[in-house]
Structure formats: structure tokens, C-alpha cells
Amino acid sequence: MRRPAESGWLLWAALATIYIVWGSTYLAIRVMVETMPPLLAAGARYVVAGSTFWAILRIASGPERVRATPRQLAGAALIGTLLCFGGNGLVTVAERDVPSGLAALIMGAMPLWVLLMRAGHGDRVPRATLAGVAVGFAGLAVLVLPGDRPGDAPLWAVLVVVAASVSWASGAFYSPRTPLPRDALASTAWQMLFGGLGMLTVGLIAGEAGDVRAAAFSADSLIAFVYLISAGSLLAFTAFVWLLQNAPVSTVMTYAYVNPLVAVFLGWAILSEEITLTVVTGTVAIVVSVATVVRRESAGRERVAA
Q1: Alpha carbon 146 to its chain's center
Q2: Distance from chain centroid for Cα 227
Q3: Do the Cβ atoms of 93 and 163 come closer than 8 Å?
Q4: Pick from 36, 90, 44, 28: nearest CA to 212
């Protein structure tokens, strides 16, 4: 049973954390890959974050909390690959050529892909919700199809972000259907570790080791790397887990359409990324669609829970 939030300020502090921090990770990724190889940097980020989570849980609660069966570890490896590697890793690769705000908008369509997967697996999705999904994908098409893309982003890189969004949605969809470690935080630690190790392996196979020149890493890239580990993976995720236990689902899920807005604003304000008519049109369609779908779905879940 969800516990009521202990105080209003703590609830808003946790919401502000996932709004701003997760919205800013796209900017941080864009800065990080300016001088750091994308897969190796993203892999190291998740290995460090996952190891830290695992160690904290192990020290605080003993070995039983992080123990998992081979079947559960296999499930964690699958979901970690879909979320961390396929989701975040592909975005990191693409953001060498795709502005951070555009990447965030495309990734923001993730709840729409989840709904399509649900419908494809036989779940009954209301027609009004499917209509909202159609509006969102129309906005996505505006961003992907040739035209006035910001930063002259190449089509291949934009499609990589689309693939990342589908991969992240697949991880979110199959996670409840996959055997995972029972403890949510321990499961996350294992997923980060497996996803990070996968990125490191593929990065080495792809020859990124030849791009590792520590002396050439800029201070901005190193700061972004540390920020992604500490704030993006550790602080924001802790706030997210707390919110799931202390706030209505409809409130927590607002991050799905707030994050892209934060990312677009930060990209414009800090990196001078252009906001074209294409971006505005796509933003309105995707954000309105996701907001409508998330609120409908969350309201439905809360009525069932009640």
C-alpha cells in the first residue's frame, strides 16, 4: 500500500529532482560525448553507478538483499540490455550528431510505444487513448522525416534515437513479465551492471579504445560524466523510487512529458540549440499526446487499485 508523503516539501523536492535532473541528462550526454567515446563512457557510467548501488545495498542490508538466482540474473541482463544499453547507450551514440533537445523529444514518445506493445499483446486499449497515441506519432514523424531538423541532424542518427526509444519501451514493457531479483533496488543495480558491461564490450569491439585519450577529455565532459553517475543515476533514481512509494502514480508519471520540455529549454539556453517550427510542432504533439495518455492510464490504474 502506498504511504502518504510525509511532507509537501519533500514530495515537491523529489518531483523537482526527477524533472530537472532527468531532463538535464540529455544535455549532459551531449557535453560528455564531445571528447569521450560514447559507448565506453556510457558503459563506465552504468558500471560505476550499478556497482555503487550494489555495494551500498550489500553493506547496509547484507548479502541476502543482492543475492539472485541464475534465472533472475538472466532476466536482469535482458532488461538491463534493453534499458541501459539499447535505450541510453544508443542515445549516447546518436547525440554526437543529434541535439540534446531533439533526442529528448523522440525519447519522450516512449509511453506511446509501450501502449502499442500492449495492444499487440492483446491488452484492450481504449480508442480515445489510441487516438492520443496517433497524435503523438504524428509529432514524432514531423521530427524524423526530412525537413527543418535542428542542428542538421542526419537521418541515421535520428533513427538511432527512435530505436533507443523502442528499446527503452521494450524494457519497460517486458520488465514485469521477466523473472528479476525481488528487491527493486538490487534488480536495478544488476541491470545497470549488465547493461554497462555490455556497452563496454561492444565499445571495445567497435574500436573505441583507440579514442580513449584521457589528456584530451575536456573538463566539461568529465564534469558531465560525473554528473550522469551521481545525479542522473543515483540521486534521481532514489527520488523516483521514493515517489513511487509515497505519491500517486499520476503525479509521478508527469516526468514523462516534463523531461522533454526541460531538455529542450536547457539545450537552447546552454548549448544554443535552435528551436525551429518543426521542433515546436513536434513538441506540442508529443507532449500533449503523452500527457493525455499517461493521465488516462494512471487514472485507470488508480481506480483499479482503489
Answers
A1: 25
A2: 15
A3: no
A4: 36
Report CA torsion sign: 22, 26, 31, 36. positive
Mean pLDDT for 134-154 is 79
> pLDDT digit string (tens) for 76-122?
999 999 999 999 999 999 999 999 999 999 988 888 898 888 888 88
Q: How far apart are CA 285 and CA 154, in angstroms?
A: 22
Supply 250's cell numbers: 499520476
Whether the full predicted model's pTM is greater than 0.85, yes or no, is yes
Strands (E), the chain: none
* H or E stretch covering 100: helix 100-107
289-to-141, 144, 252, 300 alpha-carbon distances in Å: 13, 17, 17, 17
pLDDT in tens, 29-67: 999 999 999 999 999 999 999 999 999 999 999 999 999
